[in-house]
Amino acid sequence: MSQIIYSPSKYIQGSGEITRLGVYCLQMGARGAYAIVDPYIISLYGQEISKGFASEQIPLLLREFKGECSLVQVDQIVAELGSSGVDVIVGIGGGKTLDTAKAVSHFAGLPVMLVPTVASTDAPCSALSVLYSESGEFDRYLPLRRSPDIVVADVEIIAKAPVRLLAAGMGDALSTYYEARACSRSGAVTSAGGTGTLAALALARTCLDTLLADGAQALQDAADGRATAAVEHIVEANIYLSGIGFESGGLAAAHAIHNGLTLLEECRTVLHGEKVAFTTLVQLILEGAAEAEITGAVDFCRGAGLPVTLAELRLAGVAQDRLLYAAEASCSEGSPMANMPFAVTPQQVLEAILEADRRGAKVS
Predict the structure, then answer these.
(1) What are the percentages of helix, strand and coil residues in the chain, rounded to 5?
(2) Under DSSP, is residue 33 helix (H, G, I), strand (E, B) or coil?
(3) What are the angstrom distances between the C-alpha of 289 and each of 118, 129, 281, 317?
(4) Predicted confidence (pLDDT) per residue in 245-284, tens digit
(5) What is the radius of gyration, based on Cα positions, of the chain?
(6) Could you give the CA distance from residue 116 to residue 17 in angstroms, rounded to a whole number?
(7) Half-sphere CA count of 7, side-chain side, radius 13 A
């Protein structure tokens, strides 16, 4: 089996990057750009974005992202492109906006530039879009033909976003090393199409080390809206290190169980990375990880304000049969649960969820 690593053609991180998007599109040879943008970002930075393209004489079509990152939305946007003369897709905003832009570029056969305005997930760097139903349930992973052409992270904007979003990105990134390690042990085929590489596992480990070293300080600095070195390190960990680490290192139980939990309406308003933080604890318990490792992960989540109990996932009092329903979905055919180095049953997942909840309650 081949070893494969994916990466964006270019990753750019700095302050004030939102004003230079036209320059980067020009470097891609763009003659017209179509930007899918979060409404909030348009309200705050719409002028800067438009001016950046106008200064490079690149026509820009702006579309507010609305609804879910669903196949319905993607098909609608691809149809809107028509004969507009657009030759670059730009996604500016959060994870679902960026995943939508990636899916549009995939079906339209156009290059894509992604501009994450929060560091809440590791979606920006991957050749993968996560699609949901119109009602918000996990639908499918959409493998893309290639990685994004350019990823541009404006740390100044990200530092001003709600701290909860940065913490959620840390929760998503927390799973990266543990899932990559599980895939390395099992020899699983990753979403890059081959087994994991030493480079991917090393980036995943660096991601974890960066979270532990700089996470607490970054949250304090971001609460003040300051783009400090700690914030820069966590932005890189959440977006780049975790993005390469998960895609080329592999997904396993943590994301499988997260996907199962999306079936429970009560926790739909809980952010992706917040759910993944808890399901990372579930994976560590499921695989019988060292006690110090489990305790350390729980302490990290608690310090970052990430969920460590079912109650914090808004699942307090949920009947066990519904948790089992989510556990069964996490073990369904095609789930990354198959990447674990041992067979996992829904009952084992349920027991690990309940044990993680008990441990989290003791900490709090």
Answers:
(1) 55, 10, 30
(2) strand
(3) 31, 30, 10, 27
(4) 999 999 999 999 999 999 999 998 999 999 999 999 999 9
(5) 20
(6) 11
(7) 13
Catalytic residue among 122, 154, 221, 272: 272
Non-local CB neighbours of 47 within 8 Å, separated by 6+ positions: none
DSSP state of 239: I
pTM of the model: 0.91
> Tokens for 249?
């290192």
**Which residue is catalytic, options 149, 172, 214, 221?**
172
Q: Is 272 a catalytic site residue?
A: yes
Distance in angstroms (rounded) separating the CA atoms of residues 68 and 39: 14
Catalytic residue among 122, 149, 258, 357: 258
For 131-180, the pLDDT digits (tens) are 999 888 889 889 999 999 999 999 999 999 999 999 999 999 999 999 99
255 is catalytic: yes
Can 106 be counted among the known catalytic residues?
Answer: no
Q: Give Cα separations from 244 to 48, 128, 197 (angstroms).
A: 30, 11, 11
Determine whether 233 is an active site residue: no
